[in-house]
Design goal:
This protein is an alpha+beta fold. The chain has one domain: Aminopeptidase (3-Layer(aba) Sandwich), CATH 3.40.630. The chain has helices at 18-33, 45-56, 110-124, 139-147, and strands at residues 8-12, 62-69, 72-83, 92-101, 130-132. A five-stranded mixed sheet has the order 1-2-3-4-5. The termini are far apart. The relative contact order is 0.16.
Length: 161
């Protein structure tokens, strides 16, 4: 999709957006599932994601913002407030749980606009630090998050047993 052809609007999600958000999430999850067994998804997982998105739309600690092109949802970001133990000076922080953009709209600025909208929301909540988990097997996502100013600060490891 050419950038100048888009009529992009970013808005807060509503509970009835859940099915289309589940479709966008499923596209992202299916891509990740190709990266190995750890990322495999269940056959009927969209139904569970729809219920989750309906709950999230009502939450005060989570926000979903939807990117629409001429009224058609083409991406979303799920932002969440999180807390660390009281022993830390900076106890509260933000987490970007999911950011998905449908294939035809990637690399056109949609993800960046969604990210910046989530950052505005985090700022209204007093958050000063935001985290995101990125699959090391996904160089497109790794590059995107670096462009958004993120840098690794901790390594997360897994082991099959």
């Amino acid at each position: 999709m050419a950038k100048n052809d888009m009529k992009l609007k970013i808005r807060k999600s509503q509970p009835d957006d859940a099915p289309v958000l589940a479709d966008l999430w499923h596209e992202m999850a299916a891509f990740h599932a190709k990266q190995g067994a750890y990322w495999r998804i269940k056959p009927n997982c969209k139904k569970g994601y729809i219920a989750y998105m309906q709950e999230v739309a009502k939450s005060r600690d989570k926000a979903v913002f939807v990117a629409e092109d001429s009224g058609k949802p083409v991406g979303f970001v799920l932002a969440q407030l999180s807390s660390r133990a009281r022993i830390f000076v900076e106890k509260d922080h933000g987490v970007i749980v999911d950011l998905a953009v449908t294939k035809d709209y990637r690399r056109g600025g949609v993800g960046a606009k969604l990210f910046h909208r989530a950052i505005r929301w985090f700022k209204t909540k007093g958050v000063k630090t935001v985290e995101v988990r990125v699959s090391t097997a996904n160089p497109v996502a790794t590059d995107f998050w670096r462009k958004m100013g993120f840098e690794p600060y901790m390594t997360m490891n897994k082991r099959e047993i």
